[in-house]
Amino acid sequence: MKIATWNINSVKARMHALTQWLETAKPDVLCLQEIKTQDEGFPRMEVEALGYHCLVHGQKSYNGVAILSKAEPLETQVGLAGDDADEQARYAEVVLPTKRLGGQGRIRVATIYLPNGNPVEGGDSEKYRYKLAWMDRLRERALSLLPDEHPLVLAGDYNVIPRPVDCHDPKAWWGDALFRTETLERFRALKHIGLSDAFEVLDGRPEQYSFWDYQRGAWQNNNGIRIDHLLCNAAAMDAIESVEIDRFVRDGVKPSDHVPVVGQFAL
Length: 267
Description:
- The structure is a single chain.
- With 267 residues, this protein is of the alpha+beta class.
- The protein has helices at residues 15-25, 44-48, 100-103, 126-145, 170-173, 181-192, 198-202, 234-239; strands at residues 2-7, 29-33, 53-57, 65-69, 75-78, 91-98, 105-113, 152-157, 196-197, 211-212, 224-225, 228-232, 240-245, 261-265.
- Strand 1, helix 1 (15-25) and strand 2 (29-33) form a beta-alpha-beta unit.
- Helix 4 (126-145) runs parallel beside helix 6.
- The longest helix is centred in the middle third of the chain and has 20 residues, at 126-145.
- The chain starts with a strand and ends with a strand.
């Protein structure tokens, strides 16, 4: 089973790239972020024509997530619990069948668009407080799922630079909402409950980025950051065989500023 995450940065603007990549990579599950459209605006017919079921949790002009899966979901959920006043579309999850246990196996996959959090304003801005609170809510959701022994993959744009080697210029980035003490503490707290950063475990090489800004020649100079992650529970880590960053996608026509991160699982 091939499970991927990709911040598409507007599904309508990148439909050409999405279609081409789906036809080439043929993932079993694709977690999309920043689709920037309401549910009814998602190109469902085009995606379904490629053999995918669509769970969409959209929002007009901003945010929005979706999960595309070859198998029909057994369960679905949209929205992250813990704040009834939160109207931002940043989380969705599905339970899918796997080939294990005679076809009775299960895997839970979530798509995550974690808030950026900038400007920080000394760590007390409304946007940064929202980011930290959202991370706390994500940890609580993950904790509630861990007793289930089926594989769990929390895939998405975390807007977190986990290590200095995941950034082209750590000194310049330090203090940003993506790379500061409070952010990293919460990211570690999320992992410490029993989740692993699949890329870090299976590869871990420095300068393997998943995002390059459109400005200042970032892509051409490889001035990137790694902020798109597959966090996996023990059952998923037992099954994972490889993780790849499809950086070639960034060289396409009118690309997203993110590229897909792909995990191959023996499921």
